[in-house]
Amino acid sequence: MTFHRDVADGVHRLDVGHVSCYLLEGAGGGLTLVDAGLPAVWPVLGRALRELRRSPEDLRAVVLTHAHFDHLGVAERLRRRGVTVWGHLHEHELARHPYRYSHERTRASYPFRYPRAVPILGGMVRAGALQVRAVREVRPMPTGTRLPVPGEPEVVFSPGHTWGHCALHVRDRDVLFSGDALVTLDPYTAHTGPRIIAGAATADSGLALRSLDALARTRAGLVLPGHGEPWTGGIRAAAAEARSAGPS
To answer: Which of 53, 172, 245, 247 fits a 20 to 30 Å CA distance from 47?
Structure first.
């Protein structure tokens, strides 16, 4: 369980159970949580707020790149405390039923095909992957615009991993939160480096590969994924590597 302060200007990474979410500072002092990790991120979030000398009241929004269970961990808990949860309209049903997601390939075969991924998946389970609460209310998130939340990220529609997946671009800090549209660790294969996630958890790999173009158009220098280490080589290079890696 790790808190990485200032991975970019006013951006902080919370990494629990091989899943990353991020605190984004706004100009007015508020905070946005980009994705909500797994349930075990809760104490790490509290510690992060204390280290940043912020109060829970400073957390104004949760913005979901998508609504898979490993990105919803503390979203409902925060929503019940008055924090608005944002997500693309196509993610709202999944947020209410986070284990009913579309995927191209049978999940059960992956631990046998990729045994190095078993400790990763086990870490996710220990972090609460099987105990994620549904999010009862999600505010629709328009694409192609800046969200009225601290940090004002621009919403980049990037479907494929899920039908409503969106990345978030903070232009003035040269940062792209890629969610699971592009990761540097695939939890289902243990492969590292820029790539899309395996068909065990991706709705349409072909669409996910095409959505890399939307990410590349941001020209962001720093890519912050939902799984794996930050990528400092620029989104265009990351997208090119992900295309070369192809589906799993």
So the answer is: 172
Contacts of 158 (CB under 8 A, 6+ apart): 165, 166, 167, 178, 179, 181, 208, 211, 212, 214, 215
Within 13 Å of residue 216, how many CA atoms lie on the same side as its CB?
15
3-state SS record for 79-126: HCCCCEEEECHHHHHHHHCCCCCCCCCCHHHHHHHCHHHHHHHHHHHH
243 by Cβ neighbours in 10 Å (0-12 / 13-18 / 19+) ranks as middle
- Return the bridge partners of 185, or none: 192
Burial 66-104 (b: 16+ CB within 10 A, else e): bbbbbbbbbbbebbeeebbbbbbebbbebbeebeebebe
For 4, the 3-state DSSP assignment is strand
Backbone phi, then psi, for 47, in 5-degree steps?
-65, -40
Record the tokens describing residue 20, joined without a space: 């990353």
Region 105-130: mean pLDDT is 93
